[in-house]
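Bench notes, afternoon.
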Amino acid sequence: MSQRIRLTFTKQGALRYIGHLDLHKVIERTARRAGLRLAYSQGYHPKPRLHLASALPLGFASRAEVMDLWLQDEDIDPATLPERLTRFAPPGLRITQAYPVDAKAPSLQQALRAAEYEVTLLETDDPTPARQRLDALLAADHLPRERRGKAYDLRPLILEAAWLPPDEEGNPRFRLLLSARPGATGRPDEVLHALDIPREEAFIERTALFFD
């Protein structure tokens, strides 16, 4: 029998530029260095059972990533895992929480409903135009967009948006709560595009994931 453990962790610094599949490998290596025995999938090509809740686009930071992993050792106390794993993790990866999950519980991907982001504008001396555009965006009934050649409406994917106090350097910031349901996922970079804000002029950090 194996034990299913849910981890929350950060993805900061240079680790922001590690892709989804490479992040799996990083966490797998970290677990091995920490002396954990990972459980494997069945079949001809068994792989460690590691399931991320949601892929994070390249360049995005996060303080609230969530992953399930299965361990062969049932007697490990999950409370010891954050310190144990972080000790062997690369810079930018810090395990903040670990707790057991029922093996039959729905997958993270099935249970995910929304994601929260903080967007910091880096090249904005006067945030007034951005504020006005965000107000207009929220007032719109529809925001027709295209993703991978398919038309969709961005507006219902924006659940909430609100301005935050400036950061320590005085940069304006706003919060986005976006839908993250299967087939109905909002992306903050697409919101930036709708606001006419170049992606390279903003720092995006995922701050929370919400599940059923």
